[in-house]
Amino acid sequence: MKKIGSFFCAGSMLFAAACSDSSLVRDDENLLTDVASQRQCAAINVLETQLASDPTLLSRMNGIEDHTKRFIESGAQFRINADGKIEIPVVVNVLYRNSSENISLAQIQSQIDVLNEDFNATNSDVSLTPPLFAGTVADVDIQFVLGAVNRKYSNKRSWRTNDAMKKSSQGGINPTDPSQNLNIWVVNSMGGILGYAQFPGGSSATDGVVIAHNYFGRTGVISAPFDKGRTATHEVGHWMNLRHIWGDATCGNDQVSDTPTHNTANYGCPAAGHKSTCSGTPVEMTMNYMDYTDDACMYMFTQGQKSRMLAVFAPGGARYSFAQ
Question: Does residue 235 have an active-site annotation?
């Protein structure tokens, strides 16, 4: 059983060594091309930068962790309405340089459909869950509704992970009321990075998710093996306070009790029964949305992850405004 405690240590930056490949954030946009053959999520890089630039963020995030721990320990079953669904309005902000990057409404809606399937365990491939993990599969009870689509031309060939796409002053689009909407920015390229999200506790001016246009949705301009909309599922998981399943460290802790300890990220489509060399050599949950496997090979959240996500919407939670 994993220890569930405060995720951050006061005065330290736990994420400093995670996702530290400097090639993920390069200054010369002419070098940036989307040629991803493996999943790359920059959420931890961005968090590391935010922690360094905002001395108050660590305290806020520790407070969120304390609230999450209390919520889980209380066994609370938070519900927002009669049908048990938390409704999340989604604003999609499309930044494009050419017509193919100005993705269609059908492609955008396909991503909303994927989110609703994945967060409610109605995705057809959830039936592939191995018997070992079948009892942990969670219906998170969250409904996503497309609220608006904003489009803007930009002559940028690619975007970095410095949140410029979220600022009109830097050629991007300002977020739409992030206390009431999940803002998703769809950009032409981030140099092989599929996407990134801001964790709860960060600035409202940059709150939301960013995804490259060819990894958004499951129809239209999409690139295999990330063509089933699971990049958004993974990043929205971060937005709801989920960590990578390997805890961003060798045999790390993702603060979820029912996910096995992983050595590190898994890529591609690992063979069934792939085992960790961490203590106890558990079978790794490579099909979990918070691993780095290909879209076709990730298809479940766990009950423990559900509790962690619902904590942010509960009274006192960082995203409680969505429940009001």
Answer: yes
